[in-house]
Amino acid sequence: MTDPRKPNPARRSERSRRAILDAARELISELGYAKVSIESIAARAGVGKQTIYRWWPSKGAVIFDSFLALSEGEEGMRLPDTGDLEADLKTVMRATVAEFADPAFEAPIRALNMEIIGDPDLAALYRDKLARPVDEAKKARLRSGQQAGQLAADADLDLVLEVLYAPLHQRWLHRSGPLTQEYADALVETTLRAFSP
Amino acid sequence: MTDPRKPNPARRSERSRRAILDAARELISELGYAKVSIESIAARAGVGKQTIYRWWPSKGAVIFDSFLALSEGEEGMRLPDTGDLEADLKTVMRATVAEFADPAFEAPIRALNMEIIGDPDLAALYRDKLARPVDEAKKARLRSGQQAGQLAADADLDLVLEVLYAPLHQRWLHRSGPLTQEYADALVETTLRAFSP
Amino acid sequence: MTDPRKPNPARRSERSRRAILDAARELISELGYAKVSIESIAARAGVGKQTIYRWWPSKGAVIFDSFLALSEGEEGMRLPDTGDLEADLKTVMRATVAEFADPAFEAPIRALNMEIIGDPDLAALYRDKLARPVDEAKKARLRSGQQAGQLAADADLDLVLEVLYAPLHQRWLHRSGPLTQEYADALVETTLRAFSP
Amino acid sequence: MTDPRKPNPARRSERSRRAILDAARELISELGYAKVSIESIAARAGVGKQTIYRWWPSKGAVIFDSFLALSEGEEGMRLPDTGDLEADLKTVMRATVAEFADPAFEAPIRALNMEIIGDPDLAALYRDKLARPVDEAKKARLRSGQQAGQLAADADLDLVLEVLYAPLHQRWLHRSGPLTQEYADALVETTLRAFSP
DNA sequence: CCGTAAGCGAGACGGTACGTCCGGTCTTTAG
DNA sequence: CTAAAGACCGGACGTACCGTCTCGCTTACGG
């Protein structure tokens, strides 16, 4: 017996769903998170407000889903593995730095982060759907390095990831310092020293 | 010639200022950042809305100031220095972990972080008024450890601080893992190994 | 060739029709006209909204029909004819007063009147289907009185009916005075005096 | 001690009040009662919705007040008194017929009547503020006729008014017959015959 | 020491957006 | 092919706050 108050997902309009997620992403890029309203998303998407409220519990959830939709195809994500862990990590970290520097990415990702910080449910969803797959790919590369003797065999890979990425992420979030390639390199070197065999 | 539109700070009512900052902090603790409105702050403080708008440019600024007011007396902050850098850092990190675990601190600090992430001006203010003094105290202890040969002489102390604190901060912000004393210890050990002489 | 947009009455579900009309009357009694929506009628009747829109052009039409259904059997309506016109009219008028006093009748009839006032089409339908049969029965009794010399031979019976009923109806609609049996009697007496031979 | 939830009438903006009442009357004339929304009134008046909700409990109340505002100046209403009651009443009744024929009056008055029928509070207000003054003026003329021996000395003037006006009013409300000057005359003659000395 | 200009509480104002309800249309599935 | 179910677009509802704007009223200078 299903709860009659819940909408029936089978009848959901795919056209509307896409229009809403697209509109959400566009508006966030154009106006910034705070100035985007559910009304403006509905208007831009050519959709009734109720259609948004029927399927999402909050503005944050819509925005979150608009990100999820973006990264839908990237299932089999894989990091470079040249055999040189330090070089590979630097490549990846520099790419992350570049991403943060791109204003088209900046605004929406920042908006997503604000949402996540304030909403535990969204945070959990974020970890499951967006962060974990990426982290697993990174840990796969780290494990490969571990087997190659470039990392301590007993290193806690989650901790390694945090030491590697958290400083970068924090600098970006708080704008507390420049995000340069040198900084990315320094973080890689520091992390590898900390977890050297 | 003074601008007639700018209020005269000399006439400012200290009673109102305190009432507003207190009300802001209380409401944030009770309701969380998002549900606190300027109107509710004014009502709780027994103050006209205009009195808030006269002295603060935004809700974020009020909340920020309410924090500033708290840490006003702590000017001469000083970290313990027993000569054992690792032990001292663990003491401090464990204290930070305890702070994050206290729900009375949690909500307001989280609110402050959300504000800072979204508002560059506030972020700058935060760094100057709140973060820098604390960081300087921490760096002073690190420098002392450096002179004692417990840290590489050429270590970039800002980077050390980031490696030490950012993972903890990120875990808390994203609720991506448990904040335990063991975790605090592990971060200290990892950091010291990374920057060992 | 039939118009494909028009539903085929032959296929109409009698079960649904009754359920809708019953639900409409019940809801009007319970909530009053203004608070009854087509959605609530459909829900109460266990019927899709489309089934209502397929067969009725407006909420008013549904409500109107729900009345029509009630008075379906009363085709051969007939007023008492004891030979004493005044006595017979008083009997009928007192019955009308009693009807208006019954709250179970009050709400729906009031709703019907509001609909009729605002919608000329409905008003025409009302006159044809509901008012005329009753009025004809009344005029039959008046005509009988006319032949008995209790009413002027040239009296306009439509006018007589209006003078007799309109004051009562207006008092009820506007709640501008008490609806008592004395009042009913007074109207009969007044009318008979006005149209005495 | 005043109820703090009630707005302070002293601060009320006269400009807004007039703009709202004017907009309401205009829109009713243009669109009819059912199609006028509070939002459209607010928009037309250049006023925030809250300003309407602050001072009126319902759409009906606004529309009612817009009528009240119209008849504000007509305090000392007085009917013609030529000494010939029948002639004077015919003059007045014909004027009423003409009013009902004017489409500019028709729509708003009809709207007002629908409101009154459905809302007892509004009905009471209507009787006190709009109907009573007019009725008193009419009764004054009737009383004068009574003293001149043109009306039975013991006639209940309220009843006289009802017999005189209710048929006309009902015909108009239900559109159940033509509103002609002959009809007006017939009503006057009928009424005077019913209440002749 | 007194007028006057400021800050103050209160709260009305024009607005924007909220989240809900319903109108009327359209689509899917079952019978 | 009808009917139920219910999603859809649209738009009004009544509420909450926004930031601005008077109101009187204290309160503290400055002539």
Automatic annotation (TrEMBL), chains A, B, C, D:
Pfam families attached to this UniProt entry: TetR_C_11, TetR_N
DNA-binding region: 37-56
Domain of life per record: Bacteria
HTH tetR-type domain span: 14-74
PROSITE patterns per the UniProt record, alphabetical: HTH_TETR_2 (PS50977)
Keywords (A to Z) from UniProt: DNA-binding, Transcription, Transcription regulation
PANTHER family (UniProt xref): HTH-TYPE TRANSCRIPTIONAL REGULATOR RUTR (PTHR30055), TETR-FAMILY TRANSCRIPTIONAL REGULATOR (PTHR30055:SF148)
Record protein name field: TetR/AcrR family transcriptional regulator
Organism: Nonomuraea indica
Phylogenetic classification of the source organism: Bacteria, Bacillati, Actinomycetota, Actinomycetes, Streptosporangiales
